[in-house]
Amino acid sequence: MQGCSTRISLCQGLPRLPRLAPQIFYQNFHGTAPTHHLFGLRAALDMIAEEGIENVLARHAAFARVIWSAVEVWGETGAIRPNVADRAERSVAVTTILTGEGDGVRLRRWCEDEAGLTLGIGLPLGAELTHGDSLFRIGHMGHMNPPILLGVVATVDAGLKALGIAHGGGALRVASEVLAEATLPTSAKAAE
Fold it and tell me: What's the start-to-end Cα distance of the chain, in Å?
């Protein structure tokens, strides 16, 4: 039985699988070890330790407010709106934005093809997801800084204009004002 520990009585008498009692390192992974992932994880943890977890969380929250303000301005005209209306219930890691029918996929394609920006797609959490072509996601966590963040807002804004998607104007101005008022750790203010 795959995954059973031989210490559990239900598994007594079953053959020991290499992954449960590895004789050599690679058997932990059913083949080649994900060494590059482990090095990446080590580097990410070092970056978090250097910045400090409280600073990381504060930066994520501040950057989320910048994106939310832009989305709210875009939503003043047209169908654009945040997937979660109540700011208190939104994620500070990623924001899902609803659009008019088909506009999400058009905008994602324009941003990638014309500006090299990849926007997130909707996650198919079940068969009931029927609006996948009418949404996009913006991540605002991880190795992110103000120039990248404002570049994302500016690129999405340009895409909305280029595609003729109805939206409110002034999102970049409002986003930059929210960013200017945010209290960010010094490490997040410097463009890396």
Answer: 49
Q: At what angle do helices 146-163 and 171-181 cross, to 10 degrees?
A: 170
CA distances to 97, 101, 124, 125, 176 from 83, in Å: 5, 14, 14, 14, 22
What pLDDT does 44 receive? 93
Q: Distance (Å, rounded) from C-alpha 60 to C-alpha 81?
A: 20
Q: Which residue type, as a one-letter code, is found at position 155? A: T
pLDDT digits (tens, 9 = 90+) for 105-136: 999 999 999 999 999 987 654 555 566 788 99
Contact 153, 66 (CB under 8 A): yes
Q: For residue range 56-65, list pLDDT tens digits in order.
A: 999 999 999 9
Which tokens sit at 121? 């797609």
Q: Quickly list DSSP for 38-54.
A: HHHHHHHHHHHHHH-HH
The first and second tokens of residue 166, run together, are: 């109805």
